[in-house]
Amino acid sequence: MEKAGVDFSVATYTLLIEWRARYFKIEDAQKLFDEMLEKNVAADIHVYNLMINLYSKSSDVKRAFALFDELVEKGLKPNAHIYGSLIHAVCETGKMEGTQVLLNEMQSKGIDINRVIFNTLMDGYCKQGMINEARKLQDVMERKGLQADVYTYTIFANGLCKLKQHEQAKTLLFSMVEKGVAPNTVAYTTLIDIYRKEGNFIEAERMLNEMEKKGEKPNNLTYNSLIDGYCKRGMMKEAYVLRKKMEDKGLVLDVYTYTSLMQGECIDGNIDEAVRLFEEMKGKKVIPSIKTYTVLMSGLSKEGRSDEAFGLYDEMKEGGIRPDDDVYSSLVGSLHGGET
């Protein structure tokens, strides 16, 4: 930029930062933000909103609040979007009591709590298993004239699933449809996940077909849920059919897809195929998780292939992944000559 002799306005920087934020390029966004401040281009509330939202989504609560303090010191007035981002960050920590300070501050400044913030709070409570607290918030929201939307229903359904209350979750989602609220991709994925956990793949596949007919596009979470269910039951043919559908639709196989497929192959005793999938994922720059290593080490150990299992253990540690109890348990077979 300096070589071209171009001076950017706050509007240009905003567009550049917004593009980086859209693709979650935190370092690039921060560099642009620092650059505009160095060039004395005054960041407005929209720029701060982008940066705070970005750090909130990355769970960097400290940095998000530092930016908030900075904008207040500059005399800028935080809006509902900024408070919503901070509330999201706090909810992600699980410390729900910390949100009350922000809510009180919003009310003291006359900033209305919108449906997005209510949903964020209810999601935070549901993730902590505090369904009753979330329901109290829903009552408050509806008294303010804000009706539950598809996100509200899905948040509660996922909260019920977390408590293993799958029937109640299904009932809630079906009642949503009866009330005229159309399900979205997240709602359908939640239903599909419930059915696959119940082993009801016929209904899960029916939901998949229905969502596509209604114009809702299945995403990685949707397909991964079904693939994982099939793999855990050794139904590899069905799993690979879904893998092909993912690829045909332009979806990129991620670490969850590969790990599920590897686990399925290990269950079927096809360790060499699991190893091939492991090499394929690395070749495609998909970074293995600790579960990926655990699945493959366990499979190799049960086959008595201890050298390969411990080789993966070393590779995992060199990659900066700290072993946990499951990792050590996966290596037990190697230590006993392949016995389990």
Automatic annotation (TrEMBL):
Keywords: Repeat. InterPro entries: Mito_RNA-Proc/Resp (IPR051240), PPR_rpt (IPR002885), TPR-like_helical_dom_sf (IPR011990). Pfam families: PPR (PF01535), PPR_2 (PF13041). Transmembrane segments: none annotated. PPR repeats lie at residues 9-43, 44-78, 79-113, 114-148, 149-183, 184-218, 219-253, 254-288, 289-323. It comes from the Eukaryota. Belongs to the PPR family. P subfamily. This is Pentacotripeptide-repeat region of PRORP domain-containing protein. The keyword Magnesium does not apply. The lineage of its organism: Eukaryota, Viridiplantae, Streptophyta, Embryophyta, Tracheophyta.
